[in-house]
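seq as requested:
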Amino acid sequence: MELDRTDFALIELLQKDARLSNKELAATVGLAPSSCLARVQRLRTEGVLKGSHAEVNPDALGIGLQALIAVQLRQHSRAQVKAFWNHMMGLPEVLAVFHVAGTHDFQVHVAVRDAHHLRDLALDAFTTRPEVAHIETSLIFECVKGKVMPNYRVPGPK
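struct tokens:
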């Protein structure tokens, strides 16, 4: 999909605040509201915009602790990677899964009630998996989001 400067501007604005109205978006990028709506719909249809998300205070949901769990697999077969990935995506505590290169094969971002919940999750959902050889847990003291994806593509003319 070819993206132009206006598309890039819309993407950046929506990353910063997905609640902006179509009228606000249109005024900011200098389009008629109908043209702006058509562009945003096209960005969604083409999979450029994958969704809209609300940032939630973890304390409000009873989340007292977040961690990154580094995972080494026993083998690096597609079947084992897929099995582990599918298992992780089915756990309510898992916020994000990163398949990475290096010492570990995965980094899994989890949100739990407390240290006891983290221990139980590690023992029950990670170390019992046949494809898992080793895990290493790092506590997250602070997590700040809000950055937008950088644009490395050269935008074409409007």
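The longest strand covers residues 65-73.
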